């Protein structure tokens, strides 16, 4: 029995299934840059960045040094009651990084879930309006409030709050209105005012609209130009808070520090988490003071905003800015999209390739005409990529989108390697060299 198999057996016995989403029998032992070694010493190229967490790569020396230094100096203080300089400095930095000439404040948590939970609680308190608008396919978290705002089918096993109205995201490859993206005139935006606000919920009841600038877990869907700008104008017209969830695509991934900057909009609040601490558990919401200060002690966690996590986040921001990782994400993302579209041209099961910077989705279909989602094929491809030394996951409301979110330090040569592995994995899955029974319990979302 190898070491990985032994550890998986121990995990099955000791760790709750409730926190498991497994795509292959990977046991990480060590990592550096964009490479991970498993418990048996095998090396993998990571094109997931741990669900978009490791934007700066693994073990960046500047971040390791910042964490070690802070641990030696001040390993902990409860920010809710005892100040630490790092949390104040980071809050000031986050305020400067987000647009808007209004007064802002910062809230701290541990994950995207508790950050979006903050909004679910505070939007009605701050606005006096009980309703929230979110999107079909959205994924805002696993706590009940963030769960309620989400619209992903993987989260349909529980009943969330009834104060959320979900509207279609502009998923042009699968337009729910069966319109053509070139001639529709952003019909999905017009639909919100002409139908949703006219017949489902009055805009006077809506405290906020929350969107992802790129909808990741919904299938790495990039909105058409003009859509986010139109949403912002609509929110301003009705006095609705315009909130953007940057939990997965923030901190350089799209070629900008925040994804929404690609479309020049100014949100009233920005949600941040996964990559902001380079693996240290930290999240934040930066927003208008009237929202952020709508209550005292209403959503607080003892270890949130701790000095070690804040030091890691400050170092992460420095690395992204000074090493121009957002710029590299744009360059490598354009190159990778080009290579993948070349692959698509000779591979009919690839229905669509889309992305912004280094968040890229490859949508697999059974038939390019019907566009029937090829969910099982996606699971097979992900598993076969693992066997060939490439780590990635699938996403999408039908679990048929191969998601590429590598560390932002990725090189052209590593992009080439990933494309060749993907080519081989798709061929192997299509020719039956890997079948559903080979996956065992590792079907991911399926």
From TrEMBL:
Protein name according to UniProt: Aminotransferase class III
GO MF annotation list: pyridoxal phosphate binding; transaminase activity
InterPro entries, sorted: Aminotrans_3 (IPR005814), Aminotrans_3_PPA_site (IPR049704), PyrdxlP-dep_Trfase (IPR015424), PyrdxlP-dep_Trfase_major (IPR015421), PyrdxlP-dep_Trfase_small (IPR015422)
PANTHER family according to UniProt: ALANINE--GLYOXYLATE AMINOTRANSFERASE 2-LIKE (PTHR45688:SF13), PTHR45688
UniProt-listed CDD domains: OAT_like (cd00610)
Superkingdom field: Bacteria
Gene3D superfamilies: Aspartate Aminotransferase, domain 1, Type I PLP-dependent aspartate aminotransferase-like (Major domain)
Annotated organism of origin: Hornefia porci
Transferase in keyword set: yes
Family indicated by similarity: Belongs to the class-III pyridoxal-phosphate-dependent aminotransferase family.
Signal peptide: none
SUPFAM superfamilies: PLP-dependent transferases (SSF53383)
Keyword line: Aminotransferase, Pyridoxal phosphate, Transferase
């Amino acid at each position: 029995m190898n070491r990985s198999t032994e550890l998986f057996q121990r995990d099955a016995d000791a760790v709750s299934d409730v926190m498991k989403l497994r795509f292959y029998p990977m046991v990480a032992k060590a990592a550096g840059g964009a490479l991970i070694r498993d418990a048996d010493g095998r090396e993998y190229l990571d094109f997931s960045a741990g669900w978009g967490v490791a934007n700066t790569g693994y073990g960046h020396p500047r971040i390791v040094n910042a964490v070690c230094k802070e641990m030696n100096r001040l390993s902990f203080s409860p920010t809710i009651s005892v100040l630490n300089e790092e949390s104040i400095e980071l809050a000031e930095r986050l305020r400067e990084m987000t647009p808007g000439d209004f007064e802002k404040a910062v809230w701290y948590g541990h994950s995207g879930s508790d950050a979006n939970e903050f909004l679910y609680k505070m939007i009605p308190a701050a606005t006096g309006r009980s309703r929230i608008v979110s999107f079909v396919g959205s994924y805002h978290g696993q706590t009940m409030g963030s769960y309620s705002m989400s619209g992903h089918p993987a989260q349909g096993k529980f009943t969330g709050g009834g104060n959320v109205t979900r509207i279609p995201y502009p998923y042009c490859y699968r337009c729910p209105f069966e319109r053509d993206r070139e001639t529709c005139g952003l019909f999905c935006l017009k639909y919100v005012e002409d139908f949703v606000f006219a017949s489902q919920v009055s805009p006077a009841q809506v405290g906020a609209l929350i969107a992802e600038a790129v909808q990741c877990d919904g299938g790495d869907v990039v909105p058409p130009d003009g859509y986010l700008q139109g949403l912002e104008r609509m929110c301003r017209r009705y006095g609705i808070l315009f909130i953007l969830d940057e939990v997965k695509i923030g901190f350089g991934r799209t070629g900008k520090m925040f994804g929404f900057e690609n479309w020049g909009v100014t949100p009233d609040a920005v949600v941040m988490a996964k990559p902001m601490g380079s693996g240290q558990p930290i999240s934040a919401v930066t927003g208008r003071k009237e929202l952020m200060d709508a209550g005292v002690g209403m959503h607080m966690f003892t270890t949130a905003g701790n000095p070690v996590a804040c030091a890691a986040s400050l170092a992460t921001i420095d690395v992204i800015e000074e090493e121009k990782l957002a710029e590299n994400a744009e360059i490598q993302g354009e190159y990778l999209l080009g290579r993948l579209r070349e692959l698509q041209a000779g591979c009919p099961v690839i229905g669509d390739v889309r992305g912004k910077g280094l968040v890229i989705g490859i949508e697999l279909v059974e038939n390019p005409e019907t566009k029937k989602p090829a969910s099982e094929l996606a699971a097979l491809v992900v598993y076969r990529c693992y066997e060939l030394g490439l780590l990635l996951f699938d996403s999408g409301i039908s679990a048929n989108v191969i998601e590429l979110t590598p560390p932002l330090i990725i090189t052209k040569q590593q992009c080439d390697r990933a494309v060749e592995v993907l080519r081989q994995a798709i061929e192997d899955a299509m020719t039956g060299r890997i079948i559903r029974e080979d996956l065992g319990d590792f079907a991911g979302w399926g």
